[in-house]
Amino acid sequence: MSDYSPGLAGIPAAKSKISYLDGQKGILEYRGFRIEVLAEKSHFIETAYLLLFGHLPNAFELDRFTTDLRSHRRIKYRITDLMKCLPDHGHPMDALQAAVAALGMFYPAKNVQDPEVQYHSAVRLVAKLPTIVAAHARMRHGDEPIPPRLDLNHGANFLYMLTGKEPDPMLAEVLDIALILHAEHTMNASTFSGLVAASTLADAYTVVSSAIGTLSGPLHGGASEQVVEMFREIGSVANVRPYIERKLAAKQKIMGLGHREYKVKDPRAIILQKLVQKIFDHSGKSPLYEIALETERVGTERLASKGIHPNVDFYSGIVYEKMGIDRDLFTPVFALARVVGWLAHWIEQLKDNHIFRPTEIYEGERDQAYLPLDQRS
To answer: How many CB atoms are closer than 10 A to CB 373?
Structure first.
């Protein structure tokens, strides 16, 4: 019983060279590169290559990878038809999971140990997820999907498919940085879920579908939606302190504050807060931001001694909402980025694969007598 750890908390389940996290110092690195450096100097596709293949690409590698991604943005009409059959009121994460699971039937990739299969599976998934999310977002409102454009970069193309308008370059740049920040984060719940599927030698589409399902939960990727809902519920700066005091008195979680790993402010939240300010300087402020600032101030005053600070979800929703992205698309946008991390771990897992088969502690009855039906009370 002493070896039992609920949720496997603190138990190493894999060795990895993909990302490094120091929660005491607020450090996050991808392949040894600080997240602040990548957010400032890199772009999402270059960072994706770094995570997937272990090094920053040279000019030839980046050109090939970019060209391959752009040429695989389109989705089969039957995938579109599948999404048309889904209920309009269904959550976009459920539609994304269903569509990704179906992708594997159109692109059989069962020989997962083959590097070429790994490469092309990764390219298709990174390229097609934005198209799927944008197509479903439009179809549920009765609009036709907008085909991808090959001349736009990853984030700009997504915003174009979502709105039908060529996006403001500044907003496209901010989205690109946000995708970098969400691309990878060590052994989190969705990555672990994907690794469990990967360890069975399931294909990449099954692995990513499994991870998407895990990301959809409100304790993981779904939190960004709830943070914005919380700010709207608070309603004004004056209501922040009473709201937080009520939550703490009831021992309820304050969304966007606290992280399993970080005991200081999440470095991604620091960068996202700067992006919020950049958007506001360009497009005007949001009243939610003042509420967010006061929530952070009061929350830090009351909870910093317990190592509870803003996490990545605290400001990400404000960024996406200011771009005109619907609230229930926040988590699918998270998935557009995190698919890179899932796939990087999938490729790494296959290099020295061991099927995940944890044990459990049985607490039920033993050696019970079987009673005939007429003797049971």
So the answer is: 5
